# Entry
Amino acid sequence: PRIDNDKFVVAFRWRLGLPVLPAGLRCAHHATSGDAEACDAALDIHGDHAATCPVGPFISARHAALNAVPSSAWKEAGYAVLLEQVLPEFGLRERTRRDGTVAADVARIDVEFMCHPCAPDRLLDGTIRHSGAQHVVAAAALRQGAAAGEGVRDKAKRYTPIAGKSVYACAVET
# Structure
């Protein structure tokens, strides 16, 4: 695939940890799911917020790509594959929105592998973590995979085994 020179320079600088944005900019990402409000968080000069913004398109695109890999492999292995399955047995989770209101989220598992003729059904939930995120950067500087490990632990807390079902976490770092 071809990449324009200016995009290559930004990607190269970002990967090297060099500044890619001027100071003082705000995030202009908008949610795609009905929330017309912009993120408006302060952008860091290294571009990490832009790549990990929970409102922007990059998280969703990476997440979909992450789930596509095992889905394709397990289809070839003979499983029926269902994406974004709501599983009530894992319960509701409260989440505070950016405007301060509280919402109840149902457990939505990324991939359900089922109906294999001789293998058990499986549930997989993917997460993408950024090693430069403020809450994990110190551990990530000392230990490779620290951010992904945190993602696996978070999934284990969210989806404790219940009714004979357990969720496998699939975590990657950017």
Notes: The longest strand covers residues 122-129. The chain has a mean pLDDT of 87. The helical segments are 5-16, 48-52, 57-76, 137-142, 146-158.
